[in-house]
Amino acid sequence: MNAFEDIVAYYFEEEGYWVRKAVKVNISKEEKKFIGLPSMPRPEIDLVALKVKENTLLLIEAKSYLDSPGVRFNDLNGENQDAAKRYRLFTDVRFREIVTRKMQEDYLDKGLINIHTRINYALAAGNVYSNDEARIQDYFQKNGWIFISPSQIKGKIKKLADKGWEDNLITITTKLILKN
User: Fold this and answer.
1) Quick one: pLDDT at residue 2?
2) Alpha helix stretches (DSSP H) within 20-130
3) Class for domain 3-150, per CATH?
């Protein structure tokens, strides 16, 4: 588990989701071959978030890239094929379909979702390359996906400074930094 994923999980919890971290997806050897990755270990989704009220399940990738140039649009749209591997959930249709189907089957079997639960995809970015944020936002919107920008994450975290007492590392750190 990484710290940025913890922050993103908290972001979604504050939005009314129940969140699981580092969720492994059970896909078969045949399915791995079908997507062209026969020796791949079980894929892992950074965060899986369920909003019961809306009957929505989100498969979330969390990319901090805080000490790098950031998430690049050309990596997300598949133009840069090497970098696109880091975003398979968004760049590889076969991968996305198989992972989604297996997650749905597994969660249905466990009684965590129902047959009507809508599954969607989200990317939370701690840093975005240069002027790519609007392009990424537009690309995600066109695909019906959710993009959580660095400013959205920062805004949610800043609000924690005014929240009542909560024994949570993220909330306490925010209060220490932002409280007068």
Assistant:
1) 87
2) 29-34, 73-76, 81-84, 88-91, 93-109
3) alpha beta
